[in-house]
Amino acid sequence: MLHRKTALRLVAPVAVLALTLSACNGSDDADAKGAATAAADSSPSAGGSASASASASTSAGGGEVATGESVTGKVAEEPGDVTYEIAAQKVDVGTEAEAQKVVSDPKDAKGMVLAIAHVKFTHQAGPALSDSSDANDGTTVWADGQRGSILIGASEDGVAGCEDPYDVESWKQGESHVFCESYLVPATAKSIEVHWSEEDGEPFVWKFPNA
């Protein structure tokens, strides 16, 4: 379901737009096609947001996940392996004009829109963390089966509902945090996908219609 939003704010003072294309087999391996430095302190307003409320799932080994369901995955954190429940909640989608404002050369964002994925992680088992987590490292954003273009170094601090993993210095079993990833995807995409995978694992995929 799409929700109209206003005042979506992305602060990317030294971010780099990495234009990547997925391999033909649809894997996460991607070939870099170019880069552009993102403009400082851009403030796009969201064109829409596809969202879902999570319910537990016992899915394993990757694959498509129904909207509203969560999965479990293991991440090698500094104190040891931690099992998380993961749920892609929504993707905030902006406009092409807004996407052109977050890169230094608007031509690099021609035909693209900004997509910010919100992913909720709940600590289920394993040692408590006393430093930042690597759980969100497995998150990527795709559109119509093709990997989007990540804004490397972008900060989602100004985006409502997004937490900075580096600010989470204590994380105990049962606690949850929402981390976000910012990508540019084609404005004509019919479906925006949030992928999450364990290291070297097959991705879980949540699909959100892009109306």
Largest sheet: 9 strands, antiparallel
Order of secondary-structure elements: EEEEEEEHEEEEEEE
Poorly predicted ranges: 1-15, 19-47, 52-59
CA(first)-CA(last) distance: 9 Å
| Number of helices, where a helix is a run of at least 4 consecutive DSSP H or I residues | 1
Radius of gyration, Cα only, in angstroms? 16 Å
Structural class: mainly beta
Could you tell me the mean pLDDT? 77
Strand content: 35-45%
In short:
The protein has one helix and 14 strands. By secondary structure, the protein is mainly β. A hairpin with a 2-residue loop joins β9 (139-143) and β10.
Key terms:
14 strands; five-stranded mixed beta sheet; 211 residues; nine-stranded antiparallel beta sheet; mainly beta
Task: Please provide a written account of the structure.
- The protein is built from one helix and 14 strands; from the N terminus they run βββββββαβββββββ.
- It is mainly beta and 211 residues long.
- β13 and β14 form a beta hairpin.
- Residues 1-15, 19-47 and 52-59 have low confidence and may be disordered.
How is the secondary structure organized here?
Layout lengths: L1 E2 L12 E7 L7 E8 L10 E4 L11 E3 L5 E7 L2 E14 L2 H6 L10 E14 L13 E5 L2 E2 L1 E4 L23 E11 L4 E6 L7 E6 L2
Parallel strand pairs: 5-14
Antiparallel strand pairs: 1-4, 2-3, 2-11, 4-7, 6-7, 7-8, 8-12, 9-10, 9-13, 11-12, 13-14
